[in-house]
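Inverse folding, one chain.
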C-alpha cells in the first residue's frame, strides 16, 4: 500500500473516532463477566456509551434504543444464551448492526452449536474471533485450547492459501465482515482482505483484550455509513496502536492496562498516520 493510501486511511480512522465522540452512540454489549468491566471502559474511552444489560426480560427493549449490539460467547450461561438470542432477533428486526464474538467455540461444542444456531437466525454485521475460533467456524482443523488461539494456527505465508479462501467463503455465506485477531489481524469483507500488523505482545498479558476489541468494533460500527470493513479496520488499528503506545509507557501488565486505556482515549491522527502497518491482499476500497 502506498504512503498516500495509508495517509488517507489514517485520516479516515481519525474522522471516525471524532464522529463517535460527537455522536456518543449507545453500545449494547452482552458479554462475559471476565471482560465486562474492561469492555465498558473501552467503549467509554472511545467516546461511546456502554450498556451491559443482559436480563432476558429487558434486552429487547434495550437493544431497540441502541446503535449497535455486541454479543460475546465467553463464559457462556443459560441466561446469557437466552438473552443473546432474543437481543439478536430484535436487533435484526430493527436493523441494529451486530457483532458476534466467537469466544471459545474451538474448545466447546456447546458454544459452537449455539453460534451456528444464531447464524441460522440471521447474519451478524461482524463475525469476530481469534485464528483458532475462526478456523473452527470455517470447518478447518484447529490447535487452540481454552479461549486461546493455538500457535500452529497462526496466520502465515504457508497457510494463507488454505485459510483465505475458507474465510472469504465464510464472509460471503454470512454476508458478514470477518475480524480475525492475532499477532496480525485480518479484516475480510467479501473478496477484500486487509492484514493489520499493529499491536504489541503486551495485549496478550491481560485478559479480555479480544473481548474489548469486540466492544470497540461495535462502537466504530455505529459510524459505518460508508463501509463496514472500514469501521472494523479502524477499531482494530486504534486497538493495536494504543497497545503499542501502552507498551512503551508501562513496565508490566498492571501499568500496561492503564497506559493502554489512556493512549486509546487520547489517540491523535498523527500517531495513527506514523504507526499504521497495513497490507492488502486484494483490491482496496478506501477511495
Ligand atoms: N503478539 C501480538 N502482537 C501484536 N498484537 C497482538 C498480539 N497478540 C494479540 N494482539 C492483539 O490483541 C488484540 C486481541 O487479540 P487476541 O487474538 O489476543 O484475542 P483473543 O484471543 O480473543 O483474546 P482474549 O481471549 O484475551 O479476549 C488484537 O487487537 C490483536 O491484534
Ligand atoms: C478468560 C476468559 N474465559 C472466558 S472469556 C475470558 C476472557 C477472554 O476471552
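Residues assigned per position:
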Amino acid at each position: 500500500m502506498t504512503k498516500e493510501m495509508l495517509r488517507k486511511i489514517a485520516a479516515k480512522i481519525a474522522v471516525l473516532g471524532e464522529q463517535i465522540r460527537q455522536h456518543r452512540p449507545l453500545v449494547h454489549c452482552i458479554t462475559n463477566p471476565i471482560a465486562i468491566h474492561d469492555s465498558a471502559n473501552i467503549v467509554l474511552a472511545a467516546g461511546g456509551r456502554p450498556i451491559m444489560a443482559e436480563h432476558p426480560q429487558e434486552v429487547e427493549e434495550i437493544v431497540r434504543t441502541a446503535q449497535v449490539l455486541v454479543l460475546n460467547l465467553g463464559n457462556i450461561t443459560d441466561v446469557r444464551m437466552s438473552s443473546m438470542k432474543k437481543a439478536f432477533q430484535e436487533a435484526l428486526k430493527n436493523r441494529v448492526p451486530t457483532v458476534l464474538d466467537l469466544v471459545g467455540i474451538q474448545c466447546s461444542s456447546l458454544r459452537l452449536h449455539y453460534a451456528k444456531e444464531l447464524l441460522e437466525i440471521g447474519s451478524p454485521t461482524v463475525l469476530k474471533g481469534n485464528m483458532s475460533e475462526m478456523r473452527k467456524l470455517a470447518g478447518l482443523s484447529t490447535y487452540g485450547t481454552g479461549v486461546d488461539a493455538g500457535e500452529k494456527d497462526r496466520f502465515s505465508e504457508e497457510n494463507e492459501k488454505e485459510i483465505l479462501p475458507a474465510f472469504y467463503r465464510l464472509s460471503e455465506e454470512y454476508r458478514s465482515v470477518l475480524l480475525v485477531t492475532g499477532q496480525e489481524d485480518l479484516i475480510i469483507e467479501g473478496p477484500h482482505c486487509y492484514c493489520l500488523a499493529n499491536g504489541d505482545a503486551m495485549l496478550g498479558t491481560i485478559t479480555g483484550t479480544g473481548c474489548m476489541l469486540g466492544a470497540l468494533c461495535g462502537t466504530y460500527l455505529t459510524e459505518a455509513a460508508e463501509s463496514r470493513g472500514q469501521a472494523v479496520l479502524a477499531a482494530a488499528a486504534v486497538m493495536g496502536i494504543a497497545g503499542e503506545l501502552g507498551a512503551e509507557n508501562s513496565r508490566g501488565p498492571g501499568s500496561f492496562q492503564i497506559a493502554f486505556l489512556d493512549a486509546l482515549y487520547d489517540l491523535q491522527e498523527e500517531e495513527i498516520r506514523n504507526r499504521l502497518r497495513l497490507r492488502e491482499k486484494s483490491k482496496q476500497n478506501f477511495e
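The longest helix spans residues 3-23. The radius of gyration is 17 Å.
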